[in-house]
């Protein structure tokens, strides 16, 4: 590899390529002096991860400006394939999926971009960013040179990468480097032919001059399987790792060039049932300071996490299936709602010290001091102005809900095309219902006078199943946790099983994560057969105004508890304010509303409590709530989803059961730890 190769692009070639600006621009790796070169000068980036897919478009600029004002000179961005191509062959780059507009805002703000286009991204995102329609090929081997997978990947990158080429820094844009795949060394396949194919595609579409890199975890096995000649090898690690040891591992696989931590963990994710994860600000600032003093380029993962709106949360499966919560707050420097935290200001103080051209530290074999005591690194000063304030929050207070009806009674609305019929259950993927819910219906084959076990012997409920007989809720089955319930009934009784997809596995060897009833259910000694399968278009009908458009169907506010999957609706009256708020659906005894303290007695509210389900506001799917399992207790409601002048429609699908006199509460702060 040539040392200090500078990649000059002339004014003429920039004009010919339709670049965004004119002039000589370059970004490369100086292997002799162990640094990046930007426009021929040594360069160190201080970056933060931000996911445009987890933040409302209206707030993109606000978040980017706060990152810039912290002192970052770059951002790191994932491109979730399944977010842009939910249906095969139909890419979508509009509205909240307008990646190029996001890049434009970053460029306008003064931030460079480290692009991570996958095709696999992990990110605690549904199926790691891979589209679920890939699973229509039952024998497909994801993230390998499997013919079906490679063809789909090639088709996608043929769409995406030409869109990105004008945004490369060397072409006048702000993308300085591009990652190939993501943490591939963590995957079981270790398929170098697959990685070579990706390298060829990226080079073909982005050019030989583009800095391509890989990112892998801090083990020899991960670095061995994740790296490839021609792709610069970087590493990721957090506050609990020894910095010198970690960069020493990078050096064994990449003997020269800049030290890079592509994912320095400022926090961590939450699963349902976990304690809320936090990482101490002092540890983050101390380790960041140590890395920057070594001349390393660092990306902080996350800088703002955002929200897993809709069904976009991922899941892990190590010893058991664990779904990721709706909030992706991540204990990041910017909160889920984009508010600056104590951690952000601690990081800003560290960056200010580095920007004052402090001499680099001599640590082990990583001395990169080759020009002068300050290494001549290109830095801009941390902006001296105030940090943009937190977005305003408002506590809209209590809202009483009305019962719409249980799912079994609403199938004509939710599945107007009617059911599919099959002797045995079909998966979500088989019927092209990739997200949300499906209802499976059959009948009891014989009288059950005594409680009889309904069993999923092969752990085939993916992921939760809500069982009713003749519309009466019997209980639930849950993947890895509850594989059997007892039921009674008479021959010919209707058996309804509503199955919830709680997010596909996004990491490890089990990402071929089929949903629904993936194997047969056994009732006593009988295999249940002759199914009617209803793919439920819940999001579609809600986005078109249901159930408010059918208000004559509403029950009056009910005074009897209900069990099983039931829809509720309510209307938040406009008050001239459309600010961020947080929706609390479980019981409470004391809640802070703005500056007043309201004491709400449980006896008055008749134990107002939701258990687990989904919420929509003005047709937008906020995500899953599950306060009884926790840790997350509130759902973030961005202000742009609300109207200050028109009624705001709230729809709740409660899956387990709801009491009489049901209320929800809008408060002005998040509650991410619980259950309380």
Give the SSE map.
Layout (H helix, E strand, L loop, with lengths): L10 H6 L10 E4 L4 E4 L2 E3 L2 E5 L9 H11 L3 E5 L2 H4 L14 H11 L2 E5 L30 H18 L10 E5 L12 H15 L4 E6 L3 H7 L5 E6 L5 H11 L6 E6 L15 H13 L3 E8 L10 E3 L3 E3 L18 H14 L41 E4 L1 E5 L4 H4 L5 E3 L14 E7 L4 E8 L5 E2 L1 E6 L2 E7 L5 E6 L4 E7 L15 E2 L4 E2 L2 E2 L3 E5 L2 H6 L18 E2 L2 E7 L8 E4 L5 E4 L2 E4 L2 H4 L7 E5 L2 E6 L8 E4 L10 E7 L2 E2 L4 E5 L9
Question: Would you kindly provide a written description of the structure presented here, covering whatever features stand out?
Answer:
Keywords: Glycoprotein, Glycosidase, Hydrolase, Signal. Belongs to the glycosyl hydrolase 35 family. One of its GO terms (biological process) is carbohydrate metabolic process. By secondary structure, the protein is of the alpha+beta class. The chain folds into three domains: 40-356, TIM Barrel, CATH 3.20.20.80; 397-404 and 540-667, Jelly Rolls (Sandwich), CATH 2.60.120.260; 417-536, Galactose-binding domain-like (Jelly Rolls, Sandwich). Helix content is 18%, strand content 26%. The protein contains 13 helices and 38 strands. It has an eight-stranded parallel beta barrel with strand order 4-5-6-7-8-9-10-11, surrounded by five helices. It has a six-stranded antiparallel beta sheet with strand order 16-27-17-23-20-21, with no helix packed on it. A five-stranded antiparallel beta sheet has the order 15-29-36-33-34. A hairpin with a 2-residue loop joins strand 20 (464-469) and strand 21 (472-478). The protein is globular, with a radius of gyration of 26 Å. Mean pLDDT is 90; it is low at 1-22, 368-376 and 588-607.
């Amino acid at each position: 590899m040539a040392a200090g190769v500078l990649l000059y692009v002339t004014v003429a070639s920039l004009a010919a390529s339709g670049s965004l600006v004119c002039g000589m621009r370059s970004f490369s790796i100086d292997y002799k002096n162990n640094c990046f070169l930007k426009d021929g000068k040594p360069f160190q980036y201080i970056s933060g991860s931000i996911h445009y897919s987890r933040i409302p478009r209206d707030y993109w600029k606000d978040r980017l400006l706060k990152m810039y004002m912290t002192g970052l000179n770059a951002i790191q961005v994932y491109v979730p394939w399944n977010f842009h191509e939910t249906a095969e062959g139909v890419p979508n780059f509009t509205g909240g999926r307008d990646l190029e507009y996001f890049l434009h805002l970053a460029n306008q703000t003064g931030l460079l971009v480290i692009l991570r286009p996958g095709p696999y991204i992990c990110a605690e995102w549904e199926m790691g960013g891979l589209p679920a329609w890939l699973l229509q090929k039952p024998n497909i081997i994801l993230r390998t040179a499997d013919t079906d997978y490679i063809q789909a990947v090639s088709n996608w990158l043929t769409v995406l990468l030409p869109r990105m080429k004008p945004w490369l820094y060397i072409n006048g844009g702000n993308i300085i480097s591009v990652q190939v795949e993501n943490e591939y060394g963590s995957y079981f396949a270790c398929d170098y032919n697959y990685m070579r194919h990706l390298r060829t595609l990226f080079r073909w579409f982005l050019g030989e001059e583009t800095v391509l890199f890989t990112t892998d975890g801090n083990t020899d096995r991960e670095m061995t399987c994740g790296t490839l000649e021609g792709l610069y090898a970087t590493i990721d690690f957090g506050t609990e790792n020894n910095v010198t040891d970690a960069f020493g591992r990078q050096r064994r696989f990449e003997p020269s060039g800049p030290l890079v931590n592509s994912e320095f963990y400022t926090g961590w994710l939450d699963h349902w049932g976990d304690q809320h994860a936090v990482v101490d600000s002092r540890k983050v600032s101390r380790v960041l300071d140590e890395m920057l003093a070594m001349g390393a380029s660092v990306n902080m993962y996350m800088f703002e996490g955002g929200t897993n709106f809709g069904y976009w949360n991922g899941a892990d499966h190590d010893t058991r299936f664990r779904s990721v919560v709706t909030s992706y707050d991540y204990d990041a420097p910017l909160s889920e709602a984009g508010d600056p935290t104590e951690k952000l200001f601690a990081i800003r103080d560290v960056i200010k010290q580095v920007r004052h051209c402090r001499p680099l530290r001599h640590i082990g074999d990583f001395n990169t001091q080759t020009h002068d005591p300050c290494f001549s690194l290109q830095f801009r000063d941390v902006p001296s102005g105030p940090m943009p304030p937190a977005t305003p929050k408002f506590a809209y207070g209590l809202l009483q809900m009305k019962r719409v009806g249980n799912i079994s009674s609403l199938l004509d609305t939710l599945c107007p095309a009617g059911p599919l019929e099959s002797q045995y259950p079909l998966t979500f993927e088989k019927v092209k219902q990739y997200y949300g819910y499906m209802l499976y219906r059959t009948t009891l084959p014989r009288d059950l006078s005594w409680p009889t076990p309904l069993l999923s012997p092969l752990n085939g409920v993916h992921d939760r199943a809500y069982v009713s007989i003749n519309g009466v809720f019997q209980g639930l089955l849950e993947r890895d946790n509850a594989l059997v319930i007892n039921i009674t009934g008479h021959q010919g009784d209707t058996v309804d099983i509503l199955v919830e997809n709680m997010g596909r596995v996004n990491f490890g060897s089990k990402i071929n994560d089929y949903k629904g009833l993936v194997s047969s259910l056994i009732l006593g000694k009988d295999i249940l057969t002759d199914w009617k399968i209803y793919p439920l278009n819940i999001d579609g009908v809600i986005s078109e105004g249901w159930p408010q458009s059918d208000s004559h169907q509403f029950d009056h506010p009910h005074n009897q508890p209900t069990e099983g999957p039931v829809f509720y609706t309510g209307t938040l009256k406009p008050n001239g304010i459309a600010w961020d708020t947080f929706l609390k659906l479980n019981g409470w005894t004391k809640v802070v509303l703005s500056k007043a303290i309201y004491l709400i007695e449980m006896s008055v509210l008749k134990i107002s409590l939701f258990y687990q389900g989904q919420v929509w506001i003005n047709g937008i799917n906020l995500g899953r709530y599950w306060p009884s399992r926790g840790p997350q207790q509130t759902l973030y409601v961005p202000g742009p989803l609300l109207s200050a002048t028109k009624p705001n429609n709230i729809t709740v699908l409660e899956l387990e059961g709801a009491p009489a006199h049901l209320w929800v509460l809008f408060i002005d702060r998040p509650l991410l730890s619980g259950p309380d």
